[in-house]
Write a structure and sequence with these properties.
Elements lengths: L1 E5 L2 E4 L4 E8 L7 E7 L6 E6 L6 E3 L7 E6 L4 E6 L8 E8 L14 E2 L3 E6 L1
Parallel strand pairs: 2-11
Antiparallel strand pairs: 1-3, 3-8, 4-5, 4-9, 5-6, 7-8, 9-10, 9-11
Length: 124
Amino acid sequence: VQLQASGGGLVQAGGSLRLSCAASVRTFSNYAVGWFRQAPGKEREFVSAISWSGGTTTYADSVKGRFTISRDNAKNTAYLQMNSLKPEDTAIYYCAADKSPGYSGDYTGGMDYWGKGTQVTVSS
C-alpha cells in the first residue's frame, strides 16, 4: 500500500486547509485510514481515523469540532478538512492505513502503512 498526502501549506490562524491522501491499492476500501501529525520536537500524535466504509470516525480531543475526516473509496482517497486552524496545529501531517479487520477506534499506537507527510504551518 502506497500513500501520498498532499494539500498542506501556510495559512493564517482561523483559516482552513483540506488535506488529501491518495492510495495506490486495489482494495482501498479494506483499510481504515488515519491522519497523524508531528510537530518539531514533539512525538507523533493521532489526529483522526475513519473506518473502511466511512461510517465511523474518531478524533483527538484537540481537533474535535474543527477537523473532519472523510473518504471516497471510488477515488482511493481520504481527506482531512481542517477549519479554525490554530498555530498549535502546525506540524507535518501523515496519512496512514491499517490492515486489521474491523475498526478499533484506537489508533494512538499507529497504523500499518504510512505515506510521506505534508507540512501544515499556521501563522498567528
